Amino acid sequence: MPDAPNTPAVILVVDDNAANRELARAVLEDEGHTVVLATNGLEALAEFARAPPDCVLLDVRMPGLDGFAVCQRIRALPHGADVPVLFLTALRDVETFDRATLVGGDDFLTKPVRPTELALRVQAALRLRQLGSQRRELFEELRRQRDAATRLQLQKEQVTTFLVHDLKSPVGAMALHAQTILHDPAISEDSREAAQQIQSQARQLLRLILNLLDIHRDESHPLDPVRVPTDLGPLIRDVLAGQAVQADAASVALRTSGDAPPVAIDPGLIRRTLANLVDNAIRYTPVGSEVWVRLSADDHGVLLQVADRGNGIPPARRAAIFDRFAPQADDEVTSIGRTGLGLAFCKLAVEAHGGRIWAEDGAPGAVLCVSLPHA
Fold it and tell me: Strand, helix or coil at 147?
């Protein structure tokens, strides 16, 4: 066992995936540690029995013995009781976390693991091993509190995922039934307007649900755009047509101008991004005013600008509006909503394309700008 926190240690990395093993090896060797690799549970147990390491990184899902079984057997080996075991898994759910804790795991990291986080977690595990009994008891209490907080967070994520998936089907059915009604030539004008409102609101609700799902899963499964060459002019017009009912209800005119060459984007993600920006602008534009969507080419690719005529956004808050659930002061009326859910999704989608999103002063109003690169 190393004598000080920064002293090199021997780390046993157990994973059946070669890329994961090499990533862990590179990170830990850069920290000065010696890394021993095992491709399955039996190899790991043999390496541990031959020369007990200072720490074990253990994959959960492996052929033959899974990580839980390996951890249980390690704990029964000589010197196995006090060696920290850190579980690595792509599974992010309460059941996996509970099993990892039950079999004696000291920490729980979800894939893909960030290199810095991996290095810090290993360092913390090695430091804990060196603590005296009194400090160890204090640290164990802190760890129990951390585990309780982690478990609660996993439960919340699980409920969110179930809720989102359960809501998608009925909301989609609402939009479909509204479309069926609109295709009936015999309906009255009042019924047609009501069906258009139902269809518009169902689309907005479905967009909110998808935003919530993408924001929730971003850390473990980042957005991966499927890029195709796309002419943004028709896409903009299609989005504005979809927002027409909402705009008419708010007595807001939707305008578009400009042009640009096709750019390689994921049309679905950028369509939702633009719809979120236009929806936000409609809400905070005065009655009888206009929302403009402007398209132009710039040095890097294309520039999209969505301009409203609302109260604008204070300079100090322009960067924060794209944060998840960005708070708004009670006495502040601006061109943004209170949750920041739609704008947070916009930031995820734009940055997944290698682009940039920001807010400017519209004098009056706000201009939300999106720059998308050529490739």
Answer: helix
